[in-house]
Amino acid sequence: MIVPAWLVTLQAVSYCAAALSALFASIAYFRNSSQERARWIFELYQKFYNSDSHIGMRVRIESGNTRFAEDETDGALLRELDDYLNFFEFVIFLVKHSRLKKAEALDMFQYPLSKIANDNSLMRYVTRPEYGYEGLTEFLKDLSYP
To answer: Are 38 and 46 in contact (CB under 8 A)?
Structure first.
């Protein structure tokens, strides 16, 4: 059976249209993914650096005043520390599930992560399995922190 030329042309045009549609869909997906990551980064930045929720613990950790994590006697400070560490667990969750790129997370949080990793009292606390900071511990190891 001989296929008419117009049918062959129509089929070729259909294939090209499908390929172009797939290309444009891919471009839109990557653009939307990038915008979503930018939104996550902005929100995380706001929550960490522009709100009062972590400032007390940030100052305490940056000054090296973390002995309380080893003593474990001040319940209020430990709850504040847990909130602080859970923030980073969430950032790591976003990285693991491709909502953020690792490099983006590091661009925003390299300094506080390095402060945690280089503080013996905090690392003893973070590495205790009963506290559930395995994600943070693995992430810090992956960054070649102690």
So the answer is: no
Residue 89 CA to residue 91 CA, distance in Å, equals 5
Q: CA 144, 102, 44, 84 torsion: positive or negative? A: negative
Paired tokens of 37: 């990551």
Q: Cite the DSSP H helix spans in 50-142.
A: 55-62, 67-71, 75-96, 102-117, 120-126, 134-142
Residue 15, SS3 per DSSP: helix
Q: Which residue has the tokens 């969430």?
A: 90
**pTM, full prediction:** 0.77
DSSP type of residue 64: T
**pLDDT digits over 93-108, tens only?**
999 998 889 999 999 9
Report which DSSP code applies to 98.
Answer: T
Residue type, 106: L
Distance CA(146)–CA(36), nearest Å, equals 32
Instruction: Provide the 8-state DSSP code for 129.
Output: G
Please name which of 103, 79, 88, 102 lies closest in space to residue 44, comparing C-alpha atoms.
Answer: 88
